[in-house]
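User: Hi! I'm a student and our assignment asks us to look at how structure tokens line up with a sequence. Could you show me two examples?

Assistant: Happy to help. In each example below, the sequence comes first and the structure tokens follow. Example one:
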Amino acid sequence: MIELLQFHQENCPSYIKKQIISLMRQEWPQAFGDHDEDLHWPDSPETQPTSLVLVEDNIVISHVAIPWKNISHEGQKYKAFGLSEVMTNSSFRKQGFGLRLIKEAYSFIEKNNPDISIFTCEPALVHFHTKGGWEHKQNINLIGGTRDKPFRSDILGLCTMINLFSAKAQNNFLSFEEADVYLELGEGKLW
């Protein structure tokens, strides 16, 4: 039977953590470089990431991380949530598990008083994330890193997905049009 698990990443059971890191190594080998040591995970604990994981018989089927932080944009403060580490075990792909999980992530975000949800994805995944509840905005750039050393999504060829949840965010929707949205996660980091 397939179970949906939810936990703060810092409390991840070790058998699940090993599988998530293994899936990350397969999905994004460039994050590991030429060395065999494991990635420090969670890599941005200050964003208090929550993991949603579909598991069957102790095998990780699919995973998504939901980081959040308060950001400043155009003079306003917003509680911003993202999606990260969206991946499905190759043995379970094309069966709807990833879509099920990002819809669960959308519900989780919605229940936690968000102003906005914003993240990036590869162009080929825009349709997938749109089915999960987000909108693609071509002229919004998500900026990680720091203000002094920005890590820009547009330079990486990524697409920005967004949902304006709160009345404040919806009333200020024009401030997000054709804008750079800064996360300020630390040098070289982007969720």
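Example two works the same way, sequence first and then tokens:
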Amino acid sequence: MRKSCAITLLLLLAGCGQQDMNDLKRFVAEVKAHPPRQIEPIPQIKQVATFLYVGGSRRDPFKPSEKAVDVFKVSDGTGPRPDPNRRKEELEAFPLDSLRMVGILDRKGRRYGLVRTPDGIIHRVKVGNYIGQNDGRIINIEDDKISIMELVPNGRGGYLERRAMLVLTKSS
């Protein structure tokens, strides 16, 4: 058994050296016969005009403006804050930009907004409902939009109120 395996292996190795290399040699000769391409020159670096900042009466660009300082004050706990004990509503599981207002409904003197989720389910919402992932509370429902007040972190331990809205879109 060993002898037959050894003989087969030797025959296979002997066959590898007997291949015709003329095609390869002809291809290499053709490629070498082509004239070499010209190398493109390195592009010139353009000089950029320098700018010297003279502050004078301008504010220091490395210090925040007074408005920014007011917005980003460290919270002392007196500003708006989300209620951690509040039970989350169903539409708070979706980012606000994935929700679509598809209509309104007036029923017994109350106005409701109709909101479609990404999975195609339409929900009826009213003023006071929470929506979106930033503790957004519906503050007004009009014929063509739902106004929302969100609480977003200000980056310094507090929260800012930010207005957002869902605008009526055509059904598709």
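Here is something you could point out in your write-up. The first helix runs from residue 2 to 16.
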